Amino acid sequence: MRTPVLATFMALFVCTAALTTETSLDDARQCFDRYVALQAAFDPAVADLYSDDAKIQNTRVMPSGEKRVMTLPAPAYKGIIRQVMPVAKERGDTSKYSEVKYAKEGDKVRVTATRYSELKKYSSPLSLLVGPNKDGAWLIHEELSESRP
After folding, report:
1. pLDDT per residue over 91-140, tens digit each?
2. N or C: less crowded end of the chain, CB within 10 Å?
3. 68 Cα distance to chain centroid
4. pLDDT in tens, 18-44
5. Which is nearest to 149 in space by CA: 40, 67, 47?
């Protein structure tokens, strides 16, 4: 009698784990799709996708090859995003994303992509760690990016 109960429990556990993984990857895709759509629309609401305690790190690659790593507090970064969106729209500063991949990292999902700047004509890596906040809303908890002057 124990074997059927144990087998049922194990099957339920495996199905629940698979469903959770599938759901979190779907949630991550929706979060990234919203990020891309808001950026394409030059909507300052893209700043609202960042957690207030998100890690923001950008590596600036200079023409000489020198790299400068800059870290910003999330609230300051969110403020900058809100300020620069109208300027980005005026300049036509758009990006396209390719090679988008999703990988589970604990209770979050790492989204990696190649970002192509239409204005500056270069590609660079982008890594976002997305996941639910305490209220269940999916946010960006980490952004690791690269840029050029």
Report:
1. 999 999 999 999 999 999 999 999 999 999 999 999 999 999 999 999 99
2. N
3. 22
4. 334 456 999 999 999 999 999 999 999
5. 67
> In a 3-state reduction of DSSP, which class is residue 72?
strand
Whether residue 78 contacts residue 54, with contact meaning beta carbons closer than 8 Å, is answered with no
Q: Identify the CA nearest to 147 among candidates 73, 35, 70, 45.
A: 70
* Sequence-distant contacts of 26-30: CB under 8 A, at least 24 apart: 27/109, 27/130, 27/132, 27/138, 28/102, 28/109, 28/111, 28/130, 28/131, 28/138, 29/102, 30/138
State both tokens at 25. Answer: 């990857």
Quote the pTM value: 0.83
How many residues would you count in the chain? 149
